[in-house]
Design brief:
The protein has 12 helices and 7 strands. The protein is α+β, with helices and mostly antiparallel strands and 352 residues long. It folds into 3 domains: 11-90, no CATH class; 96-193; 205-351, Alpha-Beta Plaits. It has a 5-stranded mixed sheet, with helices on both faces. Strands 4-5 form a two-stranded antiparallel sheet. The two termini are 46 Å apart.
Length: 352
């Protein structure tokens, strides 16, 4: 058999098939045509924008969820487009982020222009002041000679001219100051948008990573929870994505209110991450489990028909930060516990 393998090495198609299998296994995706087609698109176009978006979303060992694949344009749980009504492509989150960053860069450029405008105005005032000072000295010297009256008239004229220039400069500075303040607010809003999930209003993955770095820098105890809505795909399949989005918003609000001042972010798809800082592991577990119980106790109904949506729950994995942990290793441990919570019946928190 070894000789046969040497004579018939794997060809490009065989290697691609093998890579697709490994991709599905790594992300715990079922082997169905939709998942296979998505993996084929990613792996067969390794330098394309979809592969780049997937690489960004899975950095640090994070696995893709079905919701992530939907957001990236994968045909998961959706009927195919008809000939009469072609389906519009879904922009990957990475492209949305790029657009946000472009806006920030534009605002930075505008701010830089304002700074340069301030500098030009100040230099102009400095030059005018120097001219006025030199002229004033000359006319003062003249007053000591035979041109006293003429010198006074010239000083009055120069003072009037300088006053006009000062008033003009003040008006320009006032306008520039107002524009600079407006730009500052726009820049703050753009930076905030780049770190906020547009659907739920929660901070996004980038904001979470910044918050994590800040939290561990304080030396206070840090715990991390990774939460995932149970059977979320079935909600989308039965009721549509509009209802699914409402469920995401409801869970986001429940986690935000249930975890008080602690940092709650949407990590991707139906996954949320919670950063407990300055709280013991026992108290973090109690807080998270109370939030889980509060969500499970609610009974959601469809707004349009008042029909019951059924029980909506989430499972979670909770871990404590240990010396030497990175954001990737901590999330990896939390993800394994989350997977165990799903396997052990869902609607529970597994902690370690």
């Amino acid at each position: 058999m070894a000789n046969a393998a040497k004579k018939n090495p794997l060809g490009p198609s065989d290697r691609l098939y093998q890579a697709i299998g490994e991709f599905l296994a790594d992300h715990r995706l079922s082997v169905d045509p939709a998942h296979y087609a998505f993996a084929h698109r990613v792996l067969s176009q390794a330098e394309g924008p979809l592969a780049a978006a997937v690489a960004a979303m899975t950095e640090g060992g994070i696995r893709l969820t079905s919701r992530d694949i939907e957001e990236l344009g994968g045909p998961i749980g959706r009927p195919g487009p008809s000939r009469a009504q072609p389906e519009l492509p879904v922009a990957p989150p990475s492209l949305t982020l790029v657009r946000s960053e472009d806006k920030v860069q534009t605002l930075v450029a505008r701010t830089q222009m304002q700074v340069e405008g301030f500098a030009d105005t100040v230099r102009s005032i400095h030059a005018d002041t120097k001219v006025f000072g030199d002229g004033l000295r000359q006319q003062t010297d003249a007053m000591r000679g035979s041109r006293g009256a003429l010198a006074v008239d010239e000083i009055v004229r120069m003072a009037g001219s300088m006053l006009e220039r000062v008033l003009s400069a003040e008006a320009k500075l006032a306008d520039a100051t107002q524009e600079a303040e407006k730009l500052r607010h726009e820049l703050e809003e753009a930076r905030d948008d780049a770190r906020r999930d547009p659907l739920t209003g929660l901070p996004n993955r980038r904001a979470f990573e910044d918050a994590f770095a800040k939290a561990i820098g304080t030396g206070a105890p840090v715990c991390l929870a990774l939460c995932d809505i149970d059977r979320f795909k079935s909600v989308n399949d039965r009721f549509g994505h509009a209802v699914g989005d409402r469920v995401l918003k409801a869970i986001a609000e429940a986690l935000r209110s249930g975890c008080n001042e602690h940092f709650v972010a949407r990590y991707g798809g139906e996954e949320f991450v919670i950063l407990f800082s300055g709280l013991s592991f026992k108290d973090a577990l109690s807080t998270l489990d109370d939030a889980r119980a509060a969500v499970a106790a609610k009974r959601y109904r469809l707004r349009e028909t008042d029909a019951p949506l059924g029980e909506v729950t989430f499972s979670a994995g909770l871990v404590a930060f240990e010396k030497g942990d990175s954001v990737g290793s901590l999330l990896g441990r939390a993800d394994r516990l989350l997977y165990a919570a799903k396997a052990n019946g869902r609607n529970r928190v597994d902690a370690q």
